[in-house]
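Section 3.1 - Work completed
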Amino acid sequence: MSAETVLEPPVESRAAAYAAWVRELRSGKPVPKLESDAIDPLSVLARELELLAEQIARREREVERLFDLVHRLEEGVLLDDVLDRIFERFGEVIPYHRIGCAFVTPDGTHLSAFWARSLLGPMRISAGYAQPLAGSSLAAVLASGEPRIINDLEAHLAENPHSDATRRIVEEGGRSSLTCPLIVGRRPIGVLFFTSRDRGAYHDLHRTTFRQIAAQVSLVIEKSRLYEEMLDHNRRLQEERHRLSEAAAHDPLTGALNRGAIMGAVEQVVRAAAATRQPFGLVMVDIDHFKRVNDEHGHAAGDAVLIEFTRRMASALREGDLVGRYGGEEFLLLLRPLAADALGTTMERLRATVAERPFDLRGEPWRVTASFGAIVGPVGGTTAADLVARADQALYVAKRSGRDRVEIAAPAG
């Protein structure tokens, strides 16, 4: 043996070194490169161990990337935002040109399209498109919980010519698909459809990739959907509460504010005007000879007069002015803001709005007039009830003076 000959370490020590190296690898610690130029079986083993370490590191990076994607999904709150994030980021791990999301209907009978984004042609499947689940291949996908690959959608359509959804996706330009079930617990909630314009785009690796994050993705989507359902439920409750509040504040026959609501509005204006001194008008109106309408034409005709009278008043008032039914055929108008010198002109315009053309009582024209009593506020130290009483006194004067006229209460002096 020459002096230059390099002696290999004994087999036992090399094996011990490799074992220690593997233990370090299993513990997750960084391991050094195994150096060996020999071609004996132990050196081959060293090379295989190196390749194993590289594969493990690569898989760790892939898992980190997958869970980073899921974490970014969790940053979304609304469902559309979560699904948009999937479309914008999942291209790193799964190829696609289109993603669609569909949910199982509450009765479990159909799969209904909810959302889609596409880089293919014009979409042929939009929100609300539904397919029955019974006996379908999608039902089998949901039951198995396993992603399904179809790498030639045109061939699949030829074999299943009655598949309307496949036909629509092919018309959009899809040529292969990865159908991924969304399962929360053991309950299927829907499906994510990944579609590529390329044939043969999907492999077992993509199926495995989705399996690794399927539970988390399903949960994030379901949480976002439940959150949106809660928001929608709260919105409907608010709308119903508003509707009930509106109904409680309005006269059911005429739609005008009822007595309580119009008096509440007057009280608010009186309180505000005490500080701002902004003028407003308060008007009591009574339909003249209303009893004759009921006596000669019946109460249905009287109701029709009340409704038309309210309509004419509302059409003649400005935005922000209010009309309320004070009682029977008597109405209270709140005009804000309104200066004293404009009150007379406004009252005459309102009077003419009633009297200028007859009312239609079942095809018979009937001349209707009204009397108006008004006052301009604010009046220092006067309550809303006091102002209404003074407007009512002015109305009484207008009635006694011949009706179909306007009477304005004199300023307090």
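Second construct:
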Amino acid sequence: MAKVMIVGPVGAGKTTLVNALRDYQRPACKTASIIFDGDIIDTPGEYSQIPRFYPALLVTAMDAALVILVQDASTREVSLPPGFGGMLARPVVGAVTKIDLPGADSARAASRLRAAGVRDKIFFVSAMTGQGIEELSQFLNERGCNLWAKH
């Protein structure tokens, strides 16, 4: 089974996205450490925002077949440095989250993901409305990630 690692800043909606992909009906809690949950690796936002945590992401990415960089469409902040995805040595796709929120700017968020190193597909998703979740889920399943697998 192929694992996917979810990476992005604090509050970007990584764990909420994981819950939506798995159809979990539970509230998201702050991710305090790297969580290996079946074929999904959920990472704390601080790991992408504080350079001293980058080595942990680099080592963890070795367990993943694919990395999803997450960008919140409702924020104006630049949260990931230019070329960030390139250091992970894995294929990197993007997920623009919170596209349903007022003031969300999906184009700006996608541009930020491209600057951060996403060269492949970018998915536009809302965990609250379900928009884009099925497309992302299908993409992951086609790449061997079993979203419901428990190891």
